[in-house]
Design brief:
heterodimer, A: 257 residues, Rossmann fold, two-stranded antiparallel ribbon, 15 strands, globular, B: 324 residues, alpha/beta, 2 domains, 27% helix
């Protein structure tokens, strides 16, 4: 099976966000594989081990993105592709990202493409379904189980807590939800091997795209932090009285009861 | 003629979801003089649901009825909605940022080669420009976003943009549009109901969330009882999900759901930064924790230090008395 994973690097979830002049500071920030994309990498490796074939991890980013690709290779992916847009594109959105991926996938004959259901930074959650639409293939989002048999895929899809049992066919794009699997940690031999695995670097010229085609449809005009919340009141006294006071505060002061 | 904004409606168990009405209000915020056209897909009750959308401010409603639309699939709904878009040629489209909204709108935007601003929590008009505010980094920050070119297409987060008052004197046409829906390649075989009751976590006005302090799956029982008297939903921290006290679908945080209810009660949750990202924009936060140093008290409006297994049942009783 010809399996691809769409991967994005994101800030480590421990990072505090610092905004200067309407931009997020990323100097010195720790980056990780977007947690939902980790499920996609893990699932890709499992499916390959079961059905044979090859796992290629694809990211759009800058030269630092190599680190997350190497991590995915160390987990067990076979090949990686970095589409480096650092010098060509200033801004992008889900539309431009999809356009680039569409060009990349044009001649790939992918059987299965896996992505995270959302990236925890910009959280548009659009690129997976957008790409499937451009490629004319089926897609299922927020999956928690995937069984492939020949050209048929049996899928559990999380729908706000309910589970839909879905049957569809390959070629297929899925986006991964928590609960799908437990992503493995790269092993030491895995890390050693990853250094020698192929990592191809492309620029948009290599995909026969030019900058004019990659004008974003949406634009960020400002970024700001929410107002700092002041610590509230910790109640005192007998527990029972505290609870009574709380109910009264919720009703009369906060007006939420 | 005024420009049109389509609002794609969504129902659950045959009842329109609130976010549909919020989306109508959002459409009016985007362009106050726009004609708001509701769009409904399904195989039954569309007439009465369309009427309901009119009561909430839609100028008219287009329905697409087909047995293949009985339950949502991106293929089926995609065909129906695209046919309506083609017929109406709208200025904008709004839908709820729900499981269906998240699944459907990128497909449509991609087909139309348009932008899509997802998960908006506020909309302002600045001259000719419509400015959408949306959370990024799970609410650790916000961005303001505008459409650079083409369709004004957005999904809105439930519970943030108030709907208009329901008004039965509002009138408008509800008309069926015939669309040929081709056979679907993706089939839903079965739906397993796991969500506890009608109150969806992301739409709930009240959320009771439990953490590691709840200690077991059984320990969540008092939280469910409290949620019931408050008409709320139960959520959990990652710690509680990882420990198998509850399903991952209940997880609130940077991974998991982001919620903004009117009232958030954090029970036995320490308040890791990843959890705070998922709930700190709630309107009122109550923390119940036995550790007075717990980080959750730094974002809580009201806090009680003590044993949750003592406090929660008393709270449930007090609220019952209040509601009686």
């Amino acid at each position: 099976m010809n399996i691809y994973v769409l991967l994005k690097k994101t800030f480590d979830t421990e990072e505090k966000i610092v905004v200067t002049n309407g931009r997020i500071e990323d100097d010195g920030a720790e980056f990780i594989i977007n947690p939902y994309d980790e499920y996609a990498v893990e699932e890709a490796i499992k499916q390959r081990d079961e059905h044979g074939g090859e796992v290629t991890v694809v990211t759009i980013g800058d030269e630092d993105s190599e680190k997350q690709l190497r991590t995915a290779l160390a987990m067990g992916a076979d090949k990686a592709v970095l589409i480096n847009t650092e010098e060509d594109l200033e801004d992008g959105d889900a539309f431009t990202t999809t356009k680039i991926l569409e060009a990349f996938f044009e001649d790939k004959e992918a059987d299965l493409i896996l992505a995270g259901n959302v990236a925890i930074d910009e959280a548009s959650g659009q690129v997976g379904p957008r790409l499937a639409e451009r490629l004319g293939i089926n897609y299922v989002t927020t999956i928690t189980s995937l069984e492939i048999d020949g050209d048929t895929a049996k899928i559990d899809k999380d729908v706000e807590g309910d589970v839909e049992k879905i049957e569809t066919s390959l070629p297929l794009l899925v986006t991964c939800q928590q609960g799908l699997n437990e992503p493995r940690y790269p092993s030491l031999p895995g890390i050693m091997k990853a250094k020698k695995k192929p990592l191809e670097e492309l620029e948009i010229d290599d995909l026969d795209l030019d900058e004019d085609e990659l004008e974003p449809k949406t634009k960020t005009v400002d970024i700001f932090l929410p107002p700092e919340k002041e610590a509230g009141r910790v109640l005192e006294g007998e527990l029972e009285d505290q609870v009574k006071e709380l109910v009264s505060l919720l009703r009369n002061e906060a007006k939420v009861l | 003629m005024s420009e049109k904004i389509l609002v794609i409606g969504e129902s659950r168990d045959g009842v329109l979801r609130n976010v549909t009405f919020e989306a109508i209000a959002a459409a009016k915020k985007i362009k106050s003089d726009a004609e708001v056209v509701g769009v409904l897909c399904g195989n039954e009750n569309l007439e009465s649901q369309g009427q309901e959308m009119v009561y909430y401010g839609a100028d008219r409603v287009v329905t697409v009825k087909d047995d293949k639309l009985a339950s949502y699939t991106s293929e089926g709904y995609g065909q129906a909605v695209l046919a309506v878009i083609e017929g109406e040629n709208p200025y904008g489209i709004v839908m709820g940022h729900t499981a269906i909204g998240k699944d459907l709108t990128p497909k449509i935007a991609s087909k139309l080669e348009s932008g899509l601003i997802s998960d908006a929590v506020d909309i302002d008009v600045d001259g000719d420009e419509v400015v959408f505010t949306r959370p990024i980094y799970s609410g650790k920050a916000f961005e303001k976003k505008v459409v650079a070119e083409g369709l004004v297409f957005a999904t809105i987060r439930p519970n943030n943009i108030p709907s208009l008052e329901r008004d039965e004197t509002r009138t408008g046409d509800v008309q069926e549009k015939i669309v040929e829906i081709s056979d679907l390649r993706t089939v839903i075989k079965e739906v397993l109901r796991k969500a506890t009751d009608g109150v969806d976590l992301s739409e709930a006005k009240v959320v009771i969330a439990g953490g590691r302090g709840v200690k077991s799956a059984d320990g969540f029982k008092p939280l469910y009882e409290l949620a019931e008297v408050l008409g709320g939903a139960v959520g959990a921290s990652r710690g509680a999900c990882d420990a198998d006290y509850c399903d991952y679908s209940l997880q609130i945080g940077q991974t998991g759901k982001v919620v903004t209810p009117d009232l958030y009660i954090a029970v036995g949750i320490s308040g890791a930064i990843q959890h705070l990202a998922g709930m700190s924009n709630s309107k009122v936060i109550v923390a119940i924790n036995k550790d007075p140093e717990a980080n959750i008290f730094n974002v809580a409006d009201y806090g009680i230090v003590g044993d949750l297994f003592e406090i929660v049942p008393i709270l449930t009783e007090e609220i019952k008395k209040l509601k009686a």
